[in-house]
Amino acid sequence: MSPMMATRVDFTSILLSPSPSSLSSALRVRASPPAAAAARVRSSYLAPRAASATAAVSAKPAAVSPLAADRTVVRIGLPSKGRMSEQTLSLLKSCQLSVRHLNPRQYTADIPQVPNLEVWFQRPKDIVRKLQSGDLDLGIVGFDIVSEYGEGSDDLVVVHDALEFGHCRLSLAVPKEGIFENINTLEELANMPEWTQERPMRVVTGFGYLGEKFLRENGFKHVSFLAGDGALESYPAMGMADIIVDLVSSGTTLRENNLKEIDGGVVLESQATLVACRRSLHKRKGVLEITHEMLERLEAHLTATGELMVTANMRGNSAEEVAERVLSQTSLCGLQGPTISPVYCSRDGQVAVEYYAINVVVPQKSLYKSIQQLRSIGGSGVLVTKLTYIFDEETPRWRNLLSELGL
Ligand SMILES: Nc1ncnc2c1ncn2[C@@H]1O[C@H](COP(=O)(O)OP(=O)(O)OP(=O)(O)O)[C@@H](O)[C@H]1O
Ligand SMILES: O=P(O)(O)OC[C@H]1O[C@H](OP(=O)(O)OP(=O)(O)O)[C@H](O)[C@@H]1O
Ligand SMILES: [Mg+2]
């Protein structure tokens, strides 16, 4: 892919500027393109996405759409492409919120379980922009995109911050060799004598806002940025950039391209989130109710993921005596405690209780330990079942949301 415009910024000037509003005047654009282009370069730095080849609309959200106020149907934006798209649909399906998408070329769909909700398939960054403008009320998108395109805006409210997919981190990476061979921390990178006003450290990233903020806040003085959309790991080897700020998950792409992360170089941890437009939560009829329902289903499903229901029989004299044995084991305490019920059988024509059934919820990862502990206290006939939902009395995130909204 071809590089976007390069913009050179002297952070000394930024740091000296008294307030964010004077940031623009403090920025010194060192590249010297033709006059018309220079204006574009300057604004491309201030609003990096505006210069992206894929972003036709301004990085700033459009003013509140005049039609937005008349809309009675609630809208949710889901990623139309990329790895998040399928995982989003599959998570919703697991929550009994299957999206009915009749035609793959259509950008709208619905969720039959939630009648007043319209689904709009959008690019992740557009979901964030449209949440800010009020053209969408809810959206599922990576926290990286919310942070980059939302720029800390108060218009956005993260309703669920951990949908347990799309885990990655925005991280700074440098070549393993050459002048970076002995550079292993952010401080060492910042203090490299190679970076000067004339020869700043060249950073390629698709995260201009977060990348710039991070480096500025970490004391980097001479830095220039290049905006790129993909295959950023190739830029250092091509001689087009010194370092990259990009998403990392398994670390394979970095390794295969001879790059390494350094201590202190993680800009942001990310995973998929459910985000809402604050104004919609306050003003649009139905948004709060739909948010509540989605949150309940998501929380119940996500809490149940990774938990198993273990049932076993145990010989005993009373439920209390069995409970004592079960509670003596660290891996058998369950959510609130084990459920213990008598198993009735017939002995010489009489109803008798010799065994008790134990039901206990255990984390999947400690299943084997739980089985060993059950056996050690006389458990037998162990059954293990996957859980689909765990509904708590009230979801903590709902309580947090109401308090965030002052309700
Ligand atoms: N390697 C990764 N592993 C896990 N999650 C990732 C990874 N890369 C990105 N993500 C998450 O998935 C989101 C979408 O990334 P993805 O690359 O699928 O879409 P895209 O960047 O919009 O598509 P494209 O790269 O084709 O333009 C990112 O914003 C991030 O939250
Ligand atoms: O640490 P890893 O597991 O190797 O994943 C990291 C890579 O994944 C993303 O790229 P993606 O696959 O989306 O390709 P793209 O650059 O074309 O967007 C990201 O931009 C990294 O290049
Ligand atoms: Mg990608």
UniProtKB/TrEMBL annotation:
EC code(s) of this entry: 2.4.2.17
GO process terms (BP): L-histidine biosynthetic process
GO-annotated cellular components: chloroplast
Cofactor: Mg(2+)
Pathway(s) annotated for this protein in UniProt: Amino-acid biosynthesis; L-histidine biosynthesis; L-histidine from 5-phospho-alpha-D-ribose 1-diphosphate: step 1/9
Enzyme class: transferase
Gene3D superfamilies in UniProt: 3.30.70.120, Periplasmic binding protein-like II
Reactions performed catalytically: 1-(5-phospho-beta-D-ribosyl)-ATP + diphosphate = 5-phospho-alpha-D-ribose 1-diphosphate + ATP
Gene Ontology molecular functions: ATP phosphoribosyltransferase activity; magnesium ion binding
SUPFAM superfamilies: GlnB-like, Periplasmic binding protein-like II
Keywords assigned: Amino-acid biosynthesis, Chloroplast, Glycosyltransferase, Histidine biosynthesis, Plastid, Transferase, Transit peptide
Localization annotation: Plastid, Chloroplast
Domain Histidine biosynthesis HisG C-terminal: start-end pairs: 304-388
Span of domain ATP phosphoribosyltransferase catalytic: 123-298
InterPro entries (UniProt xref): ATP-PRT_HisG_long, ATP_PRibTrfase_cat, ATP_PRibTrfase_CS, ATP_PRibTrfase_HisG, HisG_C, N-reg_PII-like_a/b, N-reg_PII/ATP_PRibTrfase_C
HAMAP family listed in its UniProt record: HisG_Long
Role this protein plays: Catalyzes the condensation of ATP and 5-phosphoribose 1-diphosphate to form N'-(5'-phosphoribosyl)-ATP (PR-ATP).
Recorded family membership: Belongs to the ATP phosphoribosyltransferase family. Long subfamily.
Designated name of the protein: ATP phosphoribosyltransferase
